[in-house]
Design a protein that fits this description.
GO terms for molecular function: complement component C3b binding. This is VSIG4 protein. This protein is mainly β and 196 residues long. It has no helices and 16 strands. The strands form 5 sheets. Strands 1-9-8-3-4-5 form a 6-stranded mixed beta sheet, with no helix packed on it. A 3-stranded antiparallel beta sheet has the order 2-7-6, with no helix packed on it. A 3-stranded antiparallel beta sheet has the order 14-13-16, with no helix packed on it. A hairpin with a 2-residue loop joins strand 4 and strand 5.
Length: 196
Amino acid sequence: ALLDLAGVHQVKAEWLGSTTLPCTYTPSEGFTQQMLTWSVERDLSTSTIFRRDGSGDHILLSRFRGRVSVPKHSPGDASLQITNLEIPDSGHYTCQVIWRNESNSLITKEVTTTVKVVKVPVTKPTIRAGAQGLAVLAGSRASLTCEARGSPPISYSWFLAAPGGPGRLLGSEAELVWGSVSPSDAGTYYCEVRNR
């Protein structure tokens, strides 16, 4: 009665986005996690996606390779994270945990979450303009952040404008960071975003 898995009944996730299916418990003294499995039921057939046992972590369904993960170093957290969601990922996902107690008997609990992957209207990326003009003291840390919205996945590019020519590419993250600004960093910077 001590050990119980907590999860949610339903998750709605966006196509090409990512989601986490919660599956958590409070670790109890005298109970050791023996095995964790995540399986999916779709069109009346059930397949095991992920198994963690004494020999390590195994992703058993090839279409999930490189797209699923379970926290490694947080006892009691068996949640499944899925990235780059596809429409066929919709289905009933079951988290099953088996523990061994001090008298060597096994206890099994499971929790099921229904996942619905939905397409959202495709939108071009838009950038929210930040403050125009930034004065920074030489030697201090500085950063510029590009805030964009639109259909995922969004990629970022930061450029330093060159008079009369193409800008010089400086980075491909949403944030451009200087550990220590020098006078030679003065200039006009711009961000470009793109999606599919």
